[in-house]
């Protein structure tokens, strides 16, 4: 029984006892006409009533006892016994509807207990710590960036100096007293001559021995430019020793960068520059006591992006400067220098990359289909190289974008960023851990991947590059997801 049947349970008892009002009696009878179950219930109640009546007649209570019970009951003694169990009485019997609710509640409790047991089992069976911890990706990212930028841009030894300077703020001072060379020379030369000058600078950086002091400048804040003195000792085809000096003149730190050999079939930095910028040059400028020509790269909006001062006699890169919307971004150049004639020595061997520049686009497409972010362009810069930590099933991917003047390196590592990287502060606007320095970088967690973007370009370029990649936050496994993983593991073990 359910619905109206439950509601009429007490009235059916009253009907049998003849204790209903005319309205209730009419209501019950109308229902009984269409409900066989309730008619059967009324028949059972009448049988019980008749049985009780016969028992009462066959064994009447003693008169003194009857009188005593009547006196105790008072006015209620005249009330039919079935009314004693009306819903308003504390002695009321539970209705069929109430009993159904109790049964349903007990069923829900039983199902909940089983579900809880299954959930606890799945929770503890789930794998713990499936993502490897990534403690501080900045060092690896900068090493990858340094190797790529030296190969894919015309930088000379200044890049190594800028990167080393980032970790030594005590070496810096105000840049106001640094004498920068003139931006233009006396005589104009054509675009073809500009390309030749850059080609000479690129070749001289790999084959010429140079020893001298450089001034390195970098804008580390919106309107603050700092400078430092570094020693540069470049040995032909061997590498460069960079030493950073304190303002007092003592050596704070030194670093050796092996010579890089361009990957076979890779893009030429000079070709990249010529493809992106309009070039012009002037001659007759003096830098560190040597005569030089100035090559100027102008972007499509007519803004100067970079200048190189190239030694007229040897092609050695004597000075270079990068610019952004706020003016000077970085600069590095010799204040004193000695150039040693070229001497042939065995070429230094370099590590082989798994994916070469010539296959960058095809490799990027394959990696993208596997869940990595490797687009053909980032922040207006073309994809130049893609490399991985292993030939198959990589855990990290390194992509390099550039135009010959600026380089953006993107390192992706599967894992969980375990804390704030050293030398970085949280940037609410970019939603990354950001390092402000001569070489700028940012790192953050998105899903199951840690991204680190490094560039020798402007802060604007860094922002554009960071915005090109997802920012979904870390993976947060829900309770249901963990339980599901646990039972999947249990079933897999049973099948195995």
TrEMBL record:
Pfam families, alphabetized: zf-HC2
Protein name: Putative zinc-finger
Key words, A-Z: Membrane, Metal-binding, Transcription, Transcription regulation, Transmembrane, Transmembrane helix, Zinc, Zinc-finger
The Putative zinc-finger domain, residue ranges: 5-39
Location in or out of the cell: Membrane
This protein's record includes keyword Coiled coil: no
GO biological process: regulation of translation
Molecular function terms, GO-annotated: sigma factor antagonist activity; zinc ion binding
Keyword hit for Transferase: no
Coiled coil (UniProt feature): none
Membrane topology, from the record: Single-pass membrane protein
Organism, scientific name: Microlunatus flavus
GO cellular component: membrane
InterPro entries according to UniProt: Anti-sigma-K/W_factor, Anti_sigma_zinc_sf, Znf_put
Stretches that traverse the bilayer: 104-125
Gene3D superfamilies, per the entry: Anti-sigma factor, zinc-finger domain, Lipoprotein localisation LolA/LolB/LppX
């Amino acid at each position: 029984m359910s619905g109206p049947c439950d509601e009429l349970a007490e009235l059916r008892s009253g009907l049998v006892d003849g204790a209903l009002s005319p309205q209730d009696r009419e209501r019950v009878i109308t229902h009984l006409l269409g409900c066989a179950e309730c008619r059967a219930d009324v028949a059972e109640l009448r049988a019980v009533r008749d049985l009780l009546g016969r028992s009462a007649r066959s064994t009447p209570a003693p008169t003194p006892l009857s009188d005593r019970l009547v006196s105790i009951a008072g006015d209620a003694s005249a009330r039919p016994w079935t009314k004693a169990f009306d819903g308003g009485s504390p002695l009321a019997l539970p209705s069929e509807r109430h009993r159904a609710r109790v049964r349903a509640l007990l069923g829900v409790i039983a199902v909940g207990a089983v579900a809880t047991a299954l959930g606890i089992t799945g929770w503890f069976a789930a794998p713990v710590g499936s993502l490897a911890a990534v403690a501080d990706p900045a060092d690896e990212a900068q090493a990858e960036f340094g190797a790529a930028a030296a190969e894919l841009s015309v930088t000379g030894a200044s890049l190594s100096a800028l990167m080393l300077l980032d970790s030594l703020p005590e070496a810096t001072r105000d840049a106001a007293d640094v004498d920068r060379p003139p931006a233009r020379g006396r005589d104009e030369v054509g675009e073809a001559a500009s390309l030749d000058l850059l080609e000479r600078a690129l070749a001289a950086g790999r084959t010429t021995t140079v020893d001298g002091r450089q001034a390195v400048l970098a804008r580390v804040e919106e309107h603050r430019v700092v400078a430092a003195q570094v020693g540069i000792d470049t040995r032909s085809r061997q590498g460069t020793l960079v030493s950073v000096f304190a303002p007092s003149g003592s050596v704070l730190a030194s670093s050796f960068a092996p010579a890089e050999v361009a990957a076979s079939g890779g893009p030429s930095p000079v070709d990249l520059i010529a493809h992106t910028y309009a070039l012009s040059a002037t001659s007759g400028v003096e830098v560190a006591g040597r005569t030089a020509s100035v090559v100027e790269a102008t972007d499509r909006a007519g803004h100067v992006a970079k200048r190189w001062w190239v030694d007229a006699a040897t092609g050695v890169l004597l000075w270079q400067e990068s610019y952004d919307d706020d003016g000077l971004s970085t600069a590095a150049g010799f204040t004193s220098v000695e150039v040693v004639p070229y001497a042939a020595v065995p070429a230094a061997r370099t590590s082989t990359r798994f994916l070469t520049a010539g296959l960058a686009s095809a490799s990027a497409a394959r990696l993208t289909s596997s869940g990595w972010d490797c687009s053909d362009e980032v922040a207006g810069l073309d994809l130049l190289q893609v490399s991985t930590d292993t030939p198959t099933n990589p855990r990290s991917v390194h992509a390099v974008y550039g135009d010959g003047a600026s380089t953006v390196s993107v390192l992706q590592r599967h894992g969980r960023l375990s804390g704030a990287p050293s030398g970085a502060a949280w940037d609410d606007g970019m939603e990354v851990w950001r390092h402000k320095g001569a070489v700028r970088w940012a790192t953050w967690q998105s899903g199951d991947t840690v991204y680190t973007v490094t560039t020798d370009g402007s802060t604007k370029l860094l922002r554009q590059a960071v915005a090109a990649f997802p920012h979904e936050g870390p993976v947060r496994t829900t309770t249901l997801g963990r339980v599901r993983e646990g039972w999947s593991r249990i079933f897999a073990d049973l099948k195995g």
